[in-house]
Write a structure and sequence with these properties.
The protein has about 150 residues and is α+β, with helices and mostly antiparallel strands. It is built from four helices and four strands; from the N terminus they run αβαβααββ. The protein has one domain: Holliday junction resolvase RusA (60s Ribosomal Protein L30, Chain: A, 2-Layer Sandwich). It has helices spanning about 5-25, 50-75, 95-100, 105-110, and strands spanning about 30-35, 80-90, 125-135, 140-145.
């Protein structure tokens, strides 16, 4: 088995474990999927900027864009969720902790579109992330799992 096959096998095993942890804690009611083309802004796109207007502008622009994809996906409202973010990047230039900052834009859009009532502790049971290089289709695929209240 080559290095690439071994890495893919390890990624698949890690994803299966992640799914067991996310979905296996109790009952889930519904799973919805959303893909947002990207790449989404990362932490480095916001950190160190002299103007907080820059963040507000990114948040507004990406909120509207993600909202369109939420509408196209015909997502239905959920009360309490676990979300697995599958980040797809063009290359490995950005670090995973930089990439996953984009979750803020996604969560805010889900709230703004009425899919989630809020993005606090009462509504978010868990967040998980995977990362892969997919040069022809960067973005994020979200598996939004409605869970029974603990």
């Amino acid at each position: 088995m080559g290095h690439g096959e071994n890495l893919q096998g390890m990624q698949e095993e890690a994803l299966e474990e992640l799914e067991r942890e996310t979905y296996g804690r109790g009952q889930y009611l519904m799973i919805q999927t959303l893909f947002v083309p990207g790449p989404l802004p990362g932490l480095n796109d916001v950190a160190g900027k002299k103007s907080r207007w820059h963040y507000r502008q990114l948040k507004e622009e990406w909120g509207l864009a993600i909202g369109i994809f939420i509408t196209l996906a015909k997502l239905t409202p959920m009360q309490r969720v676990s979300i697995v973010f599958h980040w797809q990047e063009k290359n490995q230039r950005r670090d995973p902790d930089n990439i996953m900052f984009g979750q803020k834009f996604c969560l805010d859009a889900l709230v703004a579109k009425g899919i989630l009532p809020d993005d606090g502790w009462a509504e978010i049971a868990g967040l998980a992330h995977t990362f892969a290089v997919v040069p022809m289709r960067p973005g994020v695929r979200m598996e939004i799992v409605e869970v029974v209240n603990d």
